[in-house]
Amino acid sequence: MLAKKILAIIPARAGSKGLPNKNIKICAGKPLVQWTIEASLESKLVSKTLVTTDSIQVQEIARSCGAWTPFLRKESLSQDNSSITDVIKDALQWCEKEKEYFDYVMLLEPTSPLRSSDHIDNAIQNYFRVKRTDKDILISVKEIENTILWALGSNSETGYMYPLFGFDTDNPRRQDLPKCYLPNGCIFLAPISSFDGFYTDKVIPYLMDEKSSVDIDNQVDFNLAAGLLLR
Question: Which CATH code for domain 6-142+182-229?
Answer without folding.
Answer: 3.90.550.10
